[in-house]
Amino acid sequence: LNLANNHMNDFGYDGITSTMEALEEVGIEYGGPYGQIGHFEFDSMSIAVVCFSTSPNTVSLFDIRAAQELVAREARTNDVVIVSLHGGGEGLSYLHTRDTFEYYLGAPRGNVVAFAHAVIDSGADFVWGHGPHVPRALELYKRRLIAYSLGNFYTWGFNVSDERGYAPILKITFDSFGAFVHGQIVSALQKPRQPLELDSLHRAATLMHRLTAEDFPETSLFITEQGAIRRIERALRYIELQ
């Protein structure tokens, strides 16, 4: 669980430490506060989750060189390194992902494309972005997957009447070297004061399919409107077999 975001400091030091203690009591690994890195094992692989944001008391999204050094260190001692970043503008005006420095309400929110590429260059195997409150495009960079934003998932007091209510769930498979093999976008919807429900119209997947094609037309990803994600060479083989 990544705690590094622009609301982590809302209740001060006591709020941060009580959250950390609550997660530790139930055995949930987390990262974010004060440089904390999450570590866990899955299927005999050691996995590190390194968290970044633009907020105080977290590892900064703005210092790309320091981020690269941290990721490289974790890559030397873990089988898989996941980078979780909280950055980019917020809302419907920020559906598209651009390779440029973003601001929101005058506050700096980083260049998420440059950051994601840099940490993959240093050993990250998957980059998972959040913060825009809307789904964004996927990109395959050096055979590593980047999800620039998966939108909202379970929020309170937030307008979820449009794309802000799309709650995609991303399922991905890596190979033993951390390279992306295939994945699935499971489309869900968030409605006010109700549990998530699966979306038979696949609206989140359809949106991410379009945004990926528009924002990263050269990426080696094939995404169906039902949410299946394949590398281009695998997608062509899949189509031939059909």
From TrEMBL:
Residues 1-157 form the Capsule synthesis protein CapA domain. It comes from the Bacteria. Pfam families: PGA_cap. InterPro entries: Capsule_synth_CapA (IPR019079), CW_Biosynth-Accessory (IPR052169), Metallo-depent_PP-like (IPR029052). Belongs to the CapA family. This is Capsule synthesis protein CapA domain-containing protein.
